[in-house]
User: Fold these one by one.
Assistant:
Number 1:
Amino acid sequence: MNTRALFAALILATSPALILPLPAAAEPPVYTDLFSDIAVQGYDPVAYFTAGEPIKGEKAFTAEFKGATFRFVSAANRDAFLADPEKYAPQYGGYCAWAVSQGYHAKGDARFWKIVDGKLYLNYSASVQKKWEGDIPGFIAEADKAWPEINR
């Protein structure tokens, strides 16, 4: 079989998989990089609360949550996360809080963050973070309304 025929056969064999709808997610997604299952770009979500800053987690201390792998700086932080992941995981799955308030997904960047009422929010960039900080309660209210629709 020549290369062209082999390529055509491969396309025909995989075409149905390309057009079938994906099943609805059981839970809202957690943002990870395209070729990774690592959440929060490898930063320890507990450290935002305990150290007051983003700190890269270690490969030795991980936990799975909603299909993503979270890294931690210590076993103690990992255990705190496992005891109450909703307390520490970023809101909107780590997607940009401002973008969600506008009705769409955009990646959240672990360097642009804020804890509001005991919840961690990430934003896309410094400029987006500044815009979001102009009306945090309003943007959170809008994002809370939009989030279920975005993930349908």
Number 2:
Amino acid sequence: MRIVQIIDSLEVGGAEKMAVNYANAIVGLVDFSGLITTRTEGALKAQLSEKVTYLFLKKTKTIDFGAAWRLRNYCKTNRIEIVHAHSSSYFVAVLTKFCYPKIKIVWHDHNGLSEFISKKETIALKLASFFFKGIIVVNDQLKKWAQKELNCSNVIYFPNFTSVETNILNQTSLKGTPGKRILCLANLRLQKNHFLLLEVAQKVKENYPEWTFHLVGKDFNDEYSAQIKALIVSKELEDTVFVYGSKNDTTNIILQSDIAILTSDSEGLPVALIEYGLLSKAVVTTNVGEIPFMITHGVNGFMVNRKQADEFYLHLVKLIEDETLRNNLGKALYKSISENNSEKAVIAKYLNWLKK
């Protein structure tokens, strides 16, 4: 098979990371593995295998026939059979199919707003889905929605997977005291609910002032970002909460941390949680998306109801006060992630599905 992944950006994010993961993982297992970014490049480009054929499409508008033609030429030159379009990149893939009908399109829905899926604007997607060979989803709710709302019956669930990056230059040095760092690996987006994190941070500062919070993820410099930064100042958390923006050396960052958290209101299947687990970090997370299928409360992490700052704080304190508990939960999470979210198992199922 000859397969290319398409993604709109290579900035650090869950969908973007998965596009890179798929491109790298199938190298050597298929005849051709490529990756195309449509609108912007980014830090994740450095994580692409040298054996993955790469193209930056330089798409500048929603309906960009020039970009579609460049994609068509790429597909024709490299004899592409399957275009694996991640998130919103499906649109340029469908435009390309009009001028190069030989390609088959697989759409990968990474939408983290699964709880609010009924409110999505779906007209363009519904029309595009007539041209999909298949749809990959990251949770059961998205699967049910796609089967009901879209015009493609071939819908399958594959869990996200990732691997520990060892070839990325370690550039980030976290602030705060070693041994007392709490990490949140999430882009600054509304559904990640950093407001809850700040509520918890305020309580931690009062009782465990030596512990610090480290927010790593893309900063869109929008209203949400401004509100978070303003609250850090107004709550006098400047020496407790640190914002780093997007970073590429996530393995290095996680290894500098002692507890890892997610405070999201909604999720698909967060790649960050898999990364935490692969590095044996103890976690506290909200019970959204596919997280309840990954975390068994009290066994391989702590899981609390969303928007519940007091509940989140109490479980975080358990980890702050008990290093042995941190180690045990971290080891248990590593074991479960290794068994259920391994690259080898997912890719084998993926390639078998594409062959059908």
Number 3:
Amino acid sequence: MNSFYILDTTLRDGEQSAGVSFSKKEKIDIACKLDELGVDVIEAGIPAMGTEEKEVLKEIISLDLNAEILAWNRMKIEDIDQSLDCGFKNIHISAPASDIQLKHKLKKDRGWLLAELTKVINYAIKKGCMVSVGAEDASRADIDFLIQLYKVAQKEGAVRVRYADTIGALDPLATYDNIKKIREAIDLEVDFHGHNDFGMATANALSAFKAGAKYISCTVNGLGERAGNTALEEIVMSLKCIEGCESDFKIKGLKELSKLVEDSSGRRISIDKPVVGDGVFSHESGIHVDGLLKNPSTYEFLSPGDLGRERKFVIGKFSGVSSILHKYKELGISLSEDEANKVLRGIKSYSGNVESVIG
């Protein structure tokens, strides 16, 4: 039984990254891999974008995946019609919630927003759809009005609401306070959608979960507009390892999923990218290696084996005798401690001119 639900929006918000465009095959491959690993909801795209988008979305729906397949829509009946034409039954309606968005983007007021939202929700539900409602720029919206918006969504039959930190303006404490107020005011599941403009998307998502948001919107590798979104691999492992949450998510597939999205998007991840970076289980420090050889938990909270990964010891400037003895043992060579010290002195002398000596 899952105690949290992953709503992946790599195919929608992830693809909105500047310069990123997935091919039809790439979108289908990503959707299948997300489903294989156990993502609960796949926000597959925006039908209103046009014919090519609709064709691939229809094919994703035809795959009959286990995940809920969700279409993102503006608060417009014509958008809902485009989603219906694709065969979607799970509809997300995004409503600009902040006064900044209403005044400067739409040139409308709060009353208009609530009336329009009511109309569009009713239309989708009458067409037999399951509806979720998202509050765009929720983090800058008046909290009382935001709750009013969510209550309208609840009254009209929506099953889930989204709190979107669209510009990444929140910190974890503010996130917790806001989500807690919302959960106390409405009887709907809450989906938190965070952006990473200040590097706090995963921390904010974790705080949102603690406050009662059971659905977490995220993208593989944190792919998304500007600085990106909450990273799927980070929030899944944070919830499982830090919070001790139950989940059937197949975490051994995270590296492969990350690589798929990295290649498809053309956005290269760093070697130290949490959870999936090539170097996150590499160790050079002699103190750390000595501890790890005695008990891996001394310097690893994430176990590489759980993720289908391997630990790697790098020999270089900060290595100790334990590292040398271990590396030579791997090569089938037995050294005395004096011999290891002699080798280490040579390595330290040489390593001042290179990044590492032995990988």
